[in-house]
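User: Look at the shape:
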Amino acid sequence: MKITRIETFRVAVPLIKPFKTALRTVTIADSVYVKITCENGIVGWGEAPPTLVITGDSLKSIEASIHEVFKPFLLSKSILQLELLLQGIQQILVGNVSAKAAIDMALYDCFSQYCKLPLYQLLGGYNNTLETDYTVSVNDPIEMGEDAVSYVNQGFNVLKIKVGKDELQTDINRIIEIRRRVGNEIKLRLDANQGWNPKEAITAIRKMEDLGLNIELVEQPVKAEDIQGLKKVTDSVDTLIMADEAVFTPKQAFEVLKTRSADLINIKLMKSGGIYRAQIINHLAEVSGMECMVGSMIETKLGITAAAHFAASKKNITRYDFDAPLMLAEDIVDGGVQYNGRNITLSDQFGLGINHILLHNKKENVG
């Protein structure tokens, strides 16, 4: 069951509407797809979107990592040495977490196909259906209110609201307008993407609490490296605080858990470097009594399928942010997870269940 071939392909899929956060604006979902072929014909797929402002990975750095570092290490090795391979890709290169995640996904895809199991069953099999939220990009309050109503009318019960940009009162006005438009039954989650300092975060969240805006949680209100500031916010408000960019590694998760600097952790495969380390982070959180969410970058259905298989397999993962494929103008992946509005169903096909990928806009690199 040796690995015989590793290829990468660039893909670029336009978004239906620009995706805006406090950190960036995205109009095209760029990604590097990786394809691992084994000697018995099994093929595994993975995805790595470049997210320079969060992970530091670019298209070129992802491709270079795969072809110059991971490929020489993996070729001719057996997929049945999964632990050795997964440990190895973490140890032979510092950083480059998106490239690691793509390789990690493809290895798990191959291995679970060999075991004749869908990946979520191989990882634990806790569930096979999920409910995603939908993200409202940061714009002026009126446009955000209109977008929120549109998503609710499409059947979404949970909205993730981007804030952390412009004046603090503008952010508060955004939430006031959205709550006014969608009513009190819809869950609202805020994501500041590191856009506030601790004092601003405490002021904004307390004011929203006083206004009765009923916010479920606020994600990463302060700079990623400011763990003390994150803890100060967590200790100063009643609203749940979620760590996102503050937690890439198990060690960072351990620090947040040890200091109780947040109430929740958002795990993303592109931050953890794949499923292998994402499982470690979730287990650390679980034994510490902290629930996790699994989210994503702006990815196609390939990357989201891998993340959904991981998320569905674990009891401690209770929230899901998998709306990125719904934002794209085209679905280039045949197979994988299936969407029915807010509901996601995992296939019982072996592995990730990828049937075919439309690579009409590919730039191939087989190294």
